[in-house]
Amino acid sequence: KQGLSMIGSNYDLDGISVWWFTGTKEAHRSSHRWVRKSEKSRQTQASPAEIPWITEQLLAGKTVAICDLENLPAEARSDRKLLARKGVRSILIIPLRDDDRLLGACAFGLTREARLWTAETIAELKLIAEALGGANARSRAVAAIEKLQKSLQAENVYLKDEVRLAHGFAEIIGEDRGLKTCLMAVEKVAPTDVPVLILGETGTGKELIARAVHNLSERRDRPLVSVNCPTLPANIIESELFGHEKGAFTGAHAQRRGRFEMADTGTIFLDEIGELPIELQSKLLRVLQTGDFVRLGGDQTLHTDVRVIAATNRDLKQAIALGEFRSDLYYRISSFPIRLPALRDRKGDIPLLAEHFVRKSAERLDKKIDSISAKMISALTEYSWPGNVRELESIIERAMISSSGTTMLELPKQLQSVASSGPASSEPPGDLSPSGKRQVDLSTAERIHIVGALEQTEWRISGEYGAAALLGIPPSTLRSKMKRLGIKR
User: Fold this and answer.
1) What pTM was estimated for this model as a whole?
2) What does the pLDDT read at residue 65?
């Protein structure tokens, strides 16, 4: 700042500015600026779009020396009009280049009087402009390196958290035809950048499919960032997705990068996107359409290049009819839908999955069990599995913990009914008994389970002590289920 002031005083100028073009050359951002104290109320900046003739000259590598606005050519009519409105009488604009690339410009202006820019003055100010541009380029390079270091640190922390928090099986198990159809679809869509919508009930392994899409894509070496929409509180979900600036809200003590920024050049997985608040869906749509977003509390438009994979257990078309989901967002994310089969529709895979979970749990729990009894396999196969693969893994793990130390796993008496240990998923419990005498159809069991929770909470749906919290599902999902099952107080 002091250096610019000295230059301004030595050449009796009213303003100096150094600015840099964005990648599209349609906008710029100022890095250094000085205005004579007496002229601060008059001296303002103009964007490249507002001075098209001058911008065209700069793009051609020409220095623009305007001694008097009246001498501008007819094609510079809009430039003359804007400069006159801003009080500029004379201006010298010198392009800043790197080999053949135009990076920005340095402008020297006067508002008090018109001036003839001599060849000697132009030559001297060109040297000054190059020095200012070089110094700024070096500081920008240092800033870019620091930004990259912070980005890598943040990404590293995020990826470590992902590893630490990751759970579930590490490979896709099954021979079912419906599952194989899904995997064939994954192989076809993975190499593209087309958005993918994964549909399926809770616990069917939607995140596993999302990881498979990412791992088979060209972005496999970049991060896969997961966002579990229902678990993010409504008051911080915008900050989590798009980041925030320091001081954006109470407790925002430092700038924070959002998930979309972390996923740049990689993939973002939006799990249970149907639970995203309606007021945020328009902002999400903008990111998906243009890649542009603004951090919470900021005014700078940022850009991200991400491949979007979304998942939901909701009927999004029904949610659209209820006014809970935007139709334009739905059509944006559903370019390539993949529907995962429920576990009850691939019962031939249950023994394979059960054996896999036994081996996995045996290693973690230091158990010597290496097989499952035929009676237990029969019980597992006959059960309707409302909680799908996730519930099966939970049942196997609890059975392993309760086992008496034999090498063959039996189903303990306390696990004959999932209800005896509370719901293992957002769906209703059922009887694991192979006799089938106490089993009821899925819709009836689900209705009984939901009504029981509603009566227990005096028909309160949302809130800490509501039925949705008791069942472990979002309130919107509970309302949808109630409407589908015809449940009324």
Assistant:
1) 0.55
2) 93
Written as one string, the DSSP assignment of 41-103 is: TT-----GGG-HHHHHHHHTT--EEES-GGGS-GGGHHHHHHHHHTT-SEEEEEEEEETTEEE
Res. 421 pLDDT band, cuts 50 70 90: very low
What is residue 419's predicted lDDT score, i.e. its pLDDT? 34
Q: What is the pLDDT of residues 17-73, one digit of tens each?
A: 888 876 655 656 666 788 887 655 454 566 777 888 998 898 888 999 999 888 899
Q: Which two tokens stand for residue 279?
A: 């007021």
pLDDT score recorded for residue 23: 60
Q: What is the percent of the chain with per-residue pLDDT over 90, rounded to a whole number?
A: 22
Query: Both ends of the chain: CA-CA distance in Å?
Result: 71
Report residue 233 CA to chain centroid gap. Answer: 16
Which residues fall within 8 angstroms of residue 14, CB to CB, at 6 or more apart? 8, 35, 36, 39, 43, 109, 110, 111, 112
By the 10 Å C-beta count (0-12 exposed, 13-18 middle, 19+ buried), 138 is classed as: exposed
pLDDT of the residue at 91: 93
Q: CA-to-CA distance for 353 and 103, rounded, in angstroms? A: 58
Distance CA(301)–CA(13), nearest Å, equals: 33
Among residues 305, 240, 241, 229, the alpha carbon closest in space to that of 267 is found at 305
Closest by Cα among 191, 199, 200, 195 to 285: 195
Q: Tell me which residue has tokens 């060209």.
A: 218
User: Which comes out higher in pLDDT, residue 153 or 414?
Assistant: 153
At how many degrees (to 10) do helices 475-485 and 442-456 cross?
120
* Calpha distance 173→270 (Å, rounded): 23
Between the alpha carbon of residue 41 and those of residues 2, 38, 168, the distances in Å are 20, 8, 63
**pLDDT, mean of residues 289-299:** 88
Q: For residues 326 and 317, what is the distance between their CA atoms, to the nearest angstrom?
A: 9
Angle formed by the axes of helices 206-215 and 177-189, nearest 10°: 40
| 463 token code pair | 């809130």
Q: Which of 130, 124, 119 is nearest to 11 (CA)?
A: 124
State the Cα–Cα distance between residues 473 and 398, nearest whole angstrom: 22
CB 421 within 8 A of CB 414: yes
Q: What is the rounded distance in angstroms from the CA atom of residue 21 to the CA atom of residue 90?
A: 22
Instruction: Please state, in angstroms and rounded to a whole number, the distance separating the CA atoms of residues 409 and 369.
Output: 6
- Exposed/middle/buried for residue 87 (C-beta within 10 Å: 0-12, 13-18, 19+): middle
Q: Which pLDDT band, with edges at 50, 70 and 90, does 113 fall under?
A: confident
The phi and psi torsions of 297 (rounded to 5 degrees) equal: 85, 0
Mean model confidence pLDDT for the chain: 81
